[in-house]
Amino acid sequence: MNPAEKANALIEALPYLQAFRSKTILIKMGGSAMEDPELVANVMRDIVFLEVAGINPIVVHGGGKAISAAMEKAGLEANFIGGFRVTTDAAIDIVSRVLSSEINPGLVRMIRDFGGKATGIPGTDVFLGEKLKNFDSEGNPVDLGRVGEVVGCQLSNMDTAHKAGIVPVISPLASELGTGRPLNINADLAAAALAKELRVSKLVYLSDVPGLLADPKDPSSLIKSINRAKADELIADGTISGGMIPKVRSAVDALNAGVRKVHFVDGRLPHALLLEIFTDGGIGTEVIR
Ligand SMILES: Nc1ncnc2c1ncn2[C@@H]1O[C@H](COP(=O)(O)OP(=O)(O)O)[C@@H](O)[C@H]1O
Ligand SMILES: CC(=O)N[C@@H](CCC(=O)OP(=O)(O)O)C(=O)O
């Protein structure tokens, strides 16, 4: 690219930089897109770019794959029901350790290494939770152990970071109402709960697929946009399964609660985040109401 082309690329981004200046964009960094540290570093550099450009990024991260690996190492089996990890008392200790001592500080370090400002905030300082009420297809209760849903958010730590232009990096744990004990929150739900609370301009889920796929085995079968009715249909017929279920459901909830735009984007694709924000068509799947 010659210097004039470089300048043109910057100028093309101008309307988007203007539109999103001082706006908040919540980025959910999925554990599935965190297997390769180099790819994660690329995303963190894009986040530093947003921060420097005067856009306020917030990161809520997952870490499902790393948690499963740590559980296996400890001789525990990883079981999921409807995209939620069955979390025994032994498992919650591993979940907390992997999220709080490994993944969260790792992301903060990467942002700082690129000259950005970031602070790690434990989800237990942000999210208030209750045990998730979960039912099987016949309506019978299914106990998932220490799995929670978010029933409230405490924003003081976030606000302090925000006002100082620091990117908050938040783990998907909640403090249980009444007991203060940690609850394991699916990171998609945690991200959507915070996005709703803050009414963010954009919620972007970064994962390891190009977006929502009509055939999960065929990466070229991208569904460009999806609404709740269609999502329910695809969950019922099994096209949407596993970790994609909480993603789609929480995305629609966030839209209904006033979040302006929600996208599923491939976190492994170089600059996926910037392409999503700074180009017209966007990439991946847009969730609509
Ligand atoms: N229809 C679908 N389209 C795309 N991915 C799907 C679909 N149904 C199930 N999936 C699965 O959902 C996974 C993403 O969810 P998950 O593993 O929880 O990711 P993350 O860690 O990013 O939250 C994909 O890797 C894919 O295996
Ligand atoms: C209850 C529940 O399922 N919690 C998740 C929290 C991490 C997460 O959601 O990570 P991803 O975004 O990488 O899937 C778990 O234990 O795996």
TrEMBL record:
One of its GO terms (molecular function) is acetylglutamate kinase activity. Residues 23-266 form the Aspartate/glutamate/uridylate kinase domain. It catalyses: N-acetyl-L-glutamate + ATP = N-acetyl-L-glutamyl 5-phosphate + ADP. Pfam families: AA_kinase (PF00696). The record marks 28, 247 as: Transition state stabilizer. Substrate binds at residues 63-64, 85, 184. Coiled coil: none annotated. It is found in: Cytoplasm. It comes from the Bacteria. Its EC number is 2.7.2.8. Gene3D superfamilies: Acetylglutamate kinase-like. Keywords: Amino-acid biosynthesis, Arginine biosynthesis, ATP-binding, Cytoplasm, Kinase, Nucleotide-binding, Transferase. Pathway: Amino-acid biosynthesis; L-arginine biosynthesis; N(2)-acetyl-L-ornithine from L-glutamate: step 2/4. The keyword Amino-acid biosynthesis applies. Belongs to the acetylglutamate kinase family. ArgB subfamily. NCBIfam families: argB. Catalyzes the ATP-dependent phosphorylation of N-acetyl-L-glutamate. This is Acetylglutamate kinase. It comes from Luteolibacter algae. The lineage of its organism: Bacteria, Pseudomonadati, Verrucomicrobiota, Verrucomicrobiia, Verrucomicrobiales.
